[in-house]
Amino acid sequence: MRRNTYQPIVSLLQIAFQQENPVLVDLIAIENHQLLKGLMDDDSLKIFHSCSQDLETLDLMGIFPSTIYDTQIAASFLGFGYMIGYSKLVELSLGVIVSKSQQKSNWMQRPLKDSQIEYAANEVRYLFETFHFLKETLSEKGFYEWSLEESEQIRVDFINNSYSQRLNPAKIKGAGKLSREKLTNLKFLVEWRDEIARTKNIPVRWALSDELLMDLNHSKFETVKLPAEINTDAAMQSLKIAMDKINHIDKDDWLERASNRRPNQEEEVLYTGIDKIVNASSAETGIEPNLIATRKEISILIRTRNFESSKLMNGWRAELLSDDILKILG
Predict the structure, then answer these.
(1) CA distances from 148 to 66, 130, 152 (A)
(2) What global pTM score does this model have?
(3) Domains along the sequence of the chain with CATH
(4) 35 with 95: CB under 8 angstroms?
(5) Which of 162, 163, 207, 176 is nearest to 189 (CA)?
(6) Which of 88, 224, 237, 289 is positioned for an S-S bond with 282, CB 3.0–4.6 A?
């Protein structure tokens, strides 16, 4: 739960062990999360559904899993939908209806209501059965190893990119129109805002809105009126340090701007050709087309021709696509 804090407040951890009732761990009562580290360190497969927020939370707790399997991703290999919810997947896989009535209830209250406890337990109760259904069905189609590969890639991508993506200046509204110099300046300001928010334990946009951050990037910092909560001597001193770094950046170190130009006619033709390959592969295999390749991934490959780093040309996707894509891109 993250409503008015920098980091989410984790109040409950739900764990299911095979052929046993789920275990609910009250994390409000347990301050030392390292006591749970052993659960994540062993080589047993950790099963999640839509794991992104779980990985973020576990990472903040210092108990990041060594292996994962995401049933949402697995379901995409079977054409169940690209972002299918847990309840719908359980219904399709097992014929069980899982209530969502307590999803937005107050999980910080103690004691929890019986209905909350039942809901929390059911959130993991059917994961193993669902996993076994998916594993069996995927194995019959020859896709189980691919689903393992994709789940592991999500885990690795999180490790490699979570920090850089969280502080990516290109995510700020209006950043796409900035010069390389101003985009680089914005990077330092985003990092400064994040540090202020972390120190005060408030959401980053409570520390400074994106609009004020952009104003700050276009002005001398003395002319921007900062919110009272962060307009302190310490905050101003750290801002001066950030501004000093900005003033000493060499032009060669300016960030590259992401290309936001429209595809030219040749690129549109190439995109259409590769998109047809993706859709034909989806029709043949039953795998969701957005899992095989997104428009962004196709466009980047067309513009860069970087076959080595493209997801489309590596791993299980290469088995489906690479030969046909090479015929188009040469």
Answers:
(1) 13, 15, 6
(2) 0.86
(3) 12-166 (3.30.420.10), 169-253 (1.10.150.80), 265-329 (1.10.150.80)
(4) no
(5) 207
(6) 289
